[in-house]
Specification:
The structure is a single chain. The longest helix has 13 residues. The chain has 182 residues and is an alpha+beta fold. Strands 4, 5, 6, 7, 8 and 9 form a six-stranded mixed β-sheet that branches.
């Protein structure tokens, strides 16, 4: 996680200083020079469970280990709704067109200071991956395994809603699929 060291307004070093908020005194990164406060609010991230030709598409980022596949994700941009953002991300990353989408849920991902807004999308078109992605796989619902982190919980909730009890990677399996990433 990135730590802010200097004020973006006046370049004074930021310090952890006590601050009165509605909930009481909390420490925040503050600038003693101009009073700027770095709130460190979570970043909204969009995720898509992409249903394509009756299967679920999981993709592998070019920087990830060979066994690691996950949902299509991306950052929400200023001026767009979450629905517009996930349709844009799916198009940018896979070249697929979103025909319908439904909210699955909202999930915290504290390790990355993110809040994940997950959707189920039904898509059409021809898969052409962006340079950011190196591979994809299509899975039938019973073949899907969930990972014990933000988007994995979204996938599990979506599977449950469709009458499938989710299966999670064991700790060993998850470590193997992540090997080289940490």
């Amino acid at each position: 996680m990135t730590r802010w060291n200097y004020c973006p307004q006046c370049a004074t070093p930021l310090e952890m200083l006590p601050m009165q908020e509605d909930s009481g005194i909390v420490e925040r990164l503050r600038c003693a020079g101009c009073g700027f406060t770095h709130w460190n609010n979570p970043t909204p991230v969009l995720a898509a469970i992409v249903e394509y030709q009756g299967q679920v598409l999981l993709a592998r980022n070019a920087l990830w280990p060979a066994k690691m596949f996950a949902l299509i994700t991306g950052f929400m941009e200023a001026g767009e709704s979450a629905q517009e953002g996930i349709a844009r991300e799916v198009k940018e990353e896979t070249n697929l067109d979103v025909q319908s989408l439904d909210l699955v849920g909202v999930y915290d991902f504290q390790r990355m200071n993110q809040v994940i807004i997950a959707f189920h999308t039904v898509c059409t078109g021809e898969v052409k991956l962006s340079p950011e992605l190196i591979d994809y796989r299509l899975y039938d619902l019973p073949e899907l395994k969930c990972w014990p982190a933000g988007t994995g919980y979204a996938l599990a909730d979506w599977l449950r809603a469709r009458g499938h009890e989710p299966v999670f990677f064991t700790a060993e399996e998850n470590a193997e699929r992540r090997r080289g990433l940490d």
